[in-house]
Write a sequence for this structure.
């Protein structure tokens, strides 16, 4: 793979048939289905694509919306358990803790939380229910001028149904891990979910209501560990029960207990109203409310050697060495309330002209997290609260607006489809942390122990033209100009006092180009090249605090990521289905990663710019219906990625190593089969190859807590349709009970699903 993208493209042009062109995919649909279509978010997108339908989702063990993406090419969702609020998207060129490198929209409204770029800022999946989904479309890479640089990983477009008549859908689910085993933890974890969707149409008004309740208990998502000292120090209470293990870097450590065993209760309510102002103009309003109450329990492995009583904190003695347990085994809880309000407008002004508007406001009116600072037994579950921290993140959120006009002559004589648009976004994040005499009680807070806040804003204009200059050739050219600002950055710590950051602003230009060729009636080839910028988030610029045991240090001078992305894709008919082959290469300058800067003394660990990284590879995606047997549908994909850190003066040991959390191989196969009018079943298999969590790739022990393991997981599902309205399903995830880690957390072991669905 030591060749540049230009030879790769030339080889592909000679050897690979072409992918379908966008114009070739246009289908004349019945009038009733295209009436007042919702904003498309991305018009004439030149990216490689994948799609999941509502019918396919029903054959998957899907509890949350992100489960529908389990078998999509080159995607991995970092989901640890049902209701996980840290479900990050990983793609063929981005890792599983880079939340700001992909985008998620529902009906043109942004769900991505671009306030930060880590596990703590996942998309707000819970604002969508699986029962309301019509389709989910995935676009790869930043090749559309209509999208910001956050699309360099993937853009996920969720479209919900728009009812034409009254309909009702209800689903009850139960799930359980009956025999979870890891280190000294032996227990069962599970939960249930109830979801209902009602919809209908009354004249020009269509409406859709969603109500969802989820109650879930997770397996441990982390373990409290301590390094074995090279020179043991005597002292501490003698204890038993600690588990010895070797960490991912082959250093000896002990496990003190299991942590972050989350009990989450989530409730979602949503209404979507769409009104036909005229035959060609529709306005739609969406309002959603999501509440999450989370309690993180823990389990200590330690027992007092004399009394046998559980030990939760203080200095302990393990095999003659003293360890300070501190508050690593302390419980934590949080309560958040989230609201999304969105308005969209779609209007065909004339046969040739159309306008689209999409605006949304996302707010968090309540965001409270609590954790103890004591290292005594008051931190144990059920005990009276002691001293601790209470953190308020109320009133954070974002605003987005996209307005575009599209000129596309119906007669096609001009050969052009032109989109002109304006984009606006503003992200506001603030956090205020207080000392508390009783961390469980809001009324016990005393002094401010730290706070930060800040705002980023982007104004962008863009133009994109799809020019069909020949019946077999199409050229897409785009340009995006962005004016970015970061302002009102503030920080307070008791040691430093109050500090204000200087305001910043910058302008960026992102050209895009894509050329497609209809090589044969069944095959089209598309070559795409794009420049994109991903701006630093508010968190990366301004967040300096210690929260839930993790310490964040900001850097207000971070540079934006600068991406050059090339893709050569071919798609067409093969083996009774459709096949896509994509060669891709992405070079990113000033990539944003958390690392330790060894070029300064003392060393500093924080989010920093890595000078240059590169990811190149090949992706195969195949889909067929009624393949081999009538009723057998098959999806299969395979991705190889060769990733390299090309330059990083702050950490020279990382140069030449693989980019963190991007596996060399990734594959998935999903087959569903309808036996008859009553019975159907599905089998899915997912594989992920070698990957690393550290920039220097020193974590080569892939079977321990904190590691990133290769894995092969199989999922099974069987459904029975009693009649046209009632269906029951049973499923198993992780059929062979594979035990492995993706970072600090163990992935769900064998899990059983039961589901009863009603449709009217």
């Amino acid at each position: 793979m030591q060749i540049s993208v230009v030879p790769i493209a030339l080889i592909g042009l000679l050897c690979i048939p072409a992918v379908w062109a966008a114009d070739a995919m246009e289908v004349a649909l019945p009038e009733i289905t295209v009436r007042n279509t919702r904003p498309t978010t991305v018009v004439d997108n030149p990216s490689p694509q994948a799609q999941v339908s509502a019918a396919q989702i029903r054959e998957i063990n899907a509890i949350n919306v992100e489960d529908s993406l389990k078998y999509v090419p080159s995607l991995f969702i970092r989901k640890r358990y049902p209701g996980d609020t840290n479900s990050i998207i990983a793609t063929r060129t981005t890792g599983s803790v880079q939340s700001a490198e992909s985008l998620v929209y529902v009906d043109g409204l942004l769900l991505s939380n671009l306030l930060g770029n880590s596990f703590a800022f996942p998309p707000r999946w819970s604002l969508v229910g699986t029962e309301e989904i019509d389709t989910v479309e995935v676009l790869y890479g930043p090749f559309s001028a209509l999208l910001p640089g956050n699309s360099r990983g993937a853009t996920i477009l969720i479209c919900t149904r728009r009812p034409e008549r009254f309909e009702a859908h209800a689903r009850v689910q139960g799930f359980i891990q009956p025999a979870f085993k890891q280190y000294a933890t032996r227990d069962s974890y599970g939960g249930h979910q109830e979801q209902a969707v009602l919809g209908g149409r009354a004249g020009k008004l269509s409406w859709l209501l969603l109500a969802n309740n989820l109650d879930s208990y997770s397996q441990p998502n982390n373990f409290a560990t301590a390094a074995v000292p090279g020179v043991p120090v005597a002292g501490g209470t003698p204890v038993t029960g600690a588990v010895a293990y070797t960490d991912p870097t082959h250093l000896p450590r002990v496990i003190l207990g299991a942590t972050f065993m989350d009990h989450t209760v989530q409730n979602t309510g949503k209404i979507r109203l769409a009104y036909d102002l005229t035959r060609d103009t529709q306005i739609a309003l969406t309002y959603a409310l999501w509440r999450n109450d989370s309690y993180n329990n823990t389990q200590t492995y330690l027992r007092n050697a004399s009394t046998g009583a559980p030990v939760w904190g203080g200095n302990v003695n393990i095999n003659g060495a003293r360890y300070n347990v501190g508050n690593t085994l302390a419980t934590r809880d949080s309560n958040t309330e989230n609201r999304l309000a969105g308005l969209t407008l779609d209007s065909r002004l004339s046969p040739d002209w159309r306008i689209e508007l999409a605006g949304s406001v996302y707010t968090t009116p309540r965001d409270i997290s609590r954790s103890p600072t004591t290292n005594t037994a008051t931190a144990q579950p059920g005990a009276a609260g002691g001293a601790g921290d209470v953190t308020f993140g109320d009133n954070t959120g974002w605003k987005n607006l996209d307005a575009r006009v599209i000129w596309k002559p119906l007669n096609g004589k001009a050969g052009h489809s032109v989109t002109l648009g304006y984009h606006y976004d503003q992200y506001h994040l603030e956090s205020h942390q207080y000392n508390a005499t009783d961390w469980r009680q809001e009324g016990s807070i005393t002094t401010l122990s730290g706070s930060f806040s800040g705002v980023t804003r982007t104004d962008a204009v863009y133009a994109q033209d799809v020019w069909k200059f020949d019946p077999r050739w199409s050229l897409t050219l785009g340009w995006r100009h962005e004016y970015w600002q970061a302002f009102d950055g503030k920080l307070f710590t008791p040691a430093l006092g109050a500090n204000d950051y200087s305001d910043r602003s910058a302008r960026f230009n992102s050209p895009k180009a894509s050329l497609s060729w209809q090589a044969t009636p069944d095959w089209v080839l598309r070559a795409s090249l794009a420049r994109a910028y991903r701006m630093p988030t508010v968190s990366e610029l301004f967040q300096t605090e210690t929260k839930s045991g993790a310490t964040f240090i900001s850097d207000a001078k971070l540079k934006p990521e600068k991406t050059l992305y090339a893709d050569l894709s071919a798609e067409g008919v093969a083996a009774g289905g459709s096949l896509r082959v994509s060669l891709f290469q992405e070079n990113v300058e000033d990539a944003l990663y958390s690392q330790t800067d060894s070029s300064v003394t003392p060393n500093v660990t924080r989010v920093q710019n890595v000078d240059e990284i590169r990811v190149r590879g090949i992706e195969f995606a195949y889909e067929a219906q009624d393949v081999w047997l009538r009723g057998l549908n098959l999806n299969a994909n395979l991705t190889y990625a060769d990733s390299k850190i090309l330059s990083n003066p702050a950490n020279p040991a990382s140069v030449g190593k693989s980019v963190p959390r991007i596996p060399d191989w990734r594959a998935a196969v999903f087959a569903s089969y309808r036996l008859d009018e009553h019975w159907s079943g599905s089998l899915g298999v997912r594989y992920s190859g070698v990957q690393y969590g550290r920039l220097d790739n020193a974590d080569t022990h892939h079977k321990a807590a904190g590691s990133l393991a290769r894995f092969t997981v199989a999922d099974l599902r069987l459904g029975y349709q009693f009649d046209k309205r009632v269906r029951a399903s049973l499923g198993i995830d992780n059929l062979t009970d594979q035990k492995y880690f993706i970072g600090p957390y163990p992935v769900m072991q064998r899990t059983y699903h039961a589901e009863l669905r009603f449709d009217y």
Q: What stands out?
A: The first strand starts at residue 49 and ends at 53. The CA atoms of residues 473 and 497 lie 62 Å apart.
